[in-house]
């Protein structure tokens, strides 16, 4: 039987909670693993994992829990409010495809943002998790988007597939956790620093998307500009930035649009045009794919964080 100690630790650290459906926080630990193996003090160890479906106004706040957790959103949206190294409270939107790597020793709060929020949550032990979390914070934070065609997502899926509760499979999960953490670090490092010899044409393409996101790009045009086959362009760009060129471009556009929706009174169609998506219906569809909600719902329901 799974060790019940961590469940008690979690509820001892609980500051507040609110639920409105049949999901109970104790359900988090329905798939808890045994902690009887001698290696768990030295290796990262998965304490529990659970696929979760909650509805508003689900929320909970906790602090001083000696663990880390990984939350990957598969549907809908949630908000994460947490203390950061500067001892200030930060807010992050967790939408479909977003992974949050949370230090549970710090105070943090999870809130269902819309009618439904579906996610996978894994609690993991401190050894090694703490090291990678600190390294990732130095590179800009522990919130990630995991495209389904990326190496990072493949490692995440591999980690989740192993659910057998015995010592051999527990060791495999530890190995897979280290591989996953390492891939998170390498992907973020390449994204931010252009390290590991990113080809100049790939780096230039990313810079164009980041700064001139309103331009109407096409793969054929990019292929002609860089004199490289468009299929190779897609393959190479995905290798370094875990998105195809146009997927990355749309992600940039939606991030710019989110800021405009909150900090301007421009109409939805105008905002789409500003960020380079001229067809309003197309803009709304892409926005919902990226965030789980329409631009209008996002504008109405997202608080302005000063």
Task: Give a quick summary of the entry.
By secondary structure, the protein is an alpha+beta fold. 43% of the residues lie in helices and 22% in strands. The protein has 11 helices and 8 strands.
Can you describe this structure?
There is one protein chain. The chain is built from 11 helices and 8 strands. The protein has helices at 5-12, 129-138, 151-161, 167-193, 200-211, 219-226, 230-241, 245-263, 268-274, 280-291, 295-301, and strands spanning 14-18, 46-54, 59-62, 68-83, 89-95, 98-103, 108-124, 143-145. Strands 1, 2, 3, 4, 5, 6, 7 and 8 form an 8-stranded antiparallel beta sheet that branches. Helix 3 packs antiparallel against helix 4 and helix 8 (245-263) crosses helix 9. The radius of gyration is 20 Å and the shape is globular.
3D shape: globular
N-to-C SSE series? HEEEEEEEHEHHHHHHHHH
Helix content: 40-55%
Q: What is the rounded Rg?
A: 20 Å
Q: How much of the polypeptide forms β-strand, as a percent range?
A: 15-25%
Structural class: alpha+beta
Query: What is the terminal-to-terminal distance?
Result: 47 Å
Question: Which ranges are low-confidence, i.e. pLDDT below 50, for 5 or more consecutive residues?
Answer: none
Total DSSP helices: 11
* Count of extended strands: 8
Biggest sheet descriptor: 8 strands, antiparallel
Mean pLDDT across residues:
87
